Amino acid sequence: VRADKKLLVASNMNLTDAEAKKFWPLYDSYQQELQQINQQLGRTIMEYADAHNKSSIPNETAEKLMSDALDIEEAEVATVGDAPLPSTGVGDPADFSLLISAETRRR
User: Fold this and answer.
1) For 49-105, what is each residue's pLDDT tens digit?
2) For residues 103 and 80, what is the distance between their CA atoms, to the nearest angstrom?
3) What's the whole-model pTM score?
């Protein structure tokens, strides 16, 4: 899936060789950060499912899970907001905005 995604991004960014040398390391780093956030989200979902399957969820567990979910959401927003790609001067800013839009709709 990641290779297909990268191919899709590559085909839509229309980067020169010089731009690609700057862009792809940043893109890969950005994707690694998002992958870590998604793994954290998966763990939180599994923790919720385990708690739910055992019985009713105690308030303190529910509060912890909600706090974890909000922390994950904040981390994703920060990662997208801090993405260094637009400041590199690489490619068309409209292409970058499409990339970010696709990332946020992916879930």
Assistant:
1) 999 898 889 899 999 999 999 999 899 888 876 665 545 555 556 566 666 665 655
2) 9
3) 0.68
Least Cα distance to 75 among 32, 37, 105 occurs for 37
Distance CA 11, CA 39 (A): 27
Residues found in the chain: 107
How far from chain centre, in Å, is Cα 11?
20
Query: Is the Cβ–Cβ distance between 103 and 85 less than 8 Å?
Result: no
Backbone angles phi, psi at 84, to 5 degrees: -80, 0
Distance CA 22, CA 104 (A): 23
Look at the alpha carbons of 52, 53, 55, 61 in this order and tell me if their dihedral is positive or negative: negative
DSSP code of 89?
T
80 contacts 104 by C-beta, under 8 angstroms? yes
